[in-house]
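Purpose: get a first structural picture of the assembly so the mutagenesis plan has something to point at.
Setup: two entries, given in the order below. No constraints added.
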Amino acid sequence: EAQVTQNPRYLITVTGKKLTVTCSQNMNHEYMSWYRQDPGLGLRQIYYSMNVEVTDKGDVPEGYKVSRKEKRNFPLILESPSPNQTSLYFCASSLGLNQPQHFGDGTRLSIL
Amino acid sequence: DAKTTQPPSMDCAEGRAANLPCNHSTISGNEYVYWYRQIHSQGPQYIIHGLKNNETNEMASLIITEDRKSSTLILPHATLRDTAVYYCIVPDQTGANNLFFGTGTRLTVIP
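Result (structure tokens, whole complex):
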């Protein structure tokens, strides 16, 4: 089944403790991205990647890192999480520009 | 990227067609119109997209006006499971392929 898989689905952690949210897709998509969703603000793009080893900042990249060492994986790294990064995170992938994006089920992060 | 305007909410009786409008008056000639929906806090789900011509797939139909300044998403026989927030989006044409999800239309299908 074609899908985008995120892990973990839920995480409660403390300020400053590094964490990684994994994202994997099995559709051989070149394009992947991360969004965060906050009440009243819609989805905002954090980082995106057009292919392996090619990543770029979205609208709200501060406090986040990503890597794209393989086509299927696009982890989101929070080196030193802070409470303002408490949010619902979505990973998405697509064949490329102007192609439908497929979203994961989301990861709800709570930073205390 | 073109801005879209949608009504904040709509109701539809179960089994009836749901017609969701969207205005995108600043859309440019090569920009597509996409529709996604989000059920509660699940991941957004792609529904359909189009450029100029009307489109239909197993989920919905998309009617785009000739001047491309507005479109309508049609769910032909709404079910309770179609209750969701529907987003009309014109993605940016940069490499970011950024989807700006605004507030969308909250569709409630009523039994």
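The CA atoms of residues 38 and 87 of chain A lie 6 Å apart.
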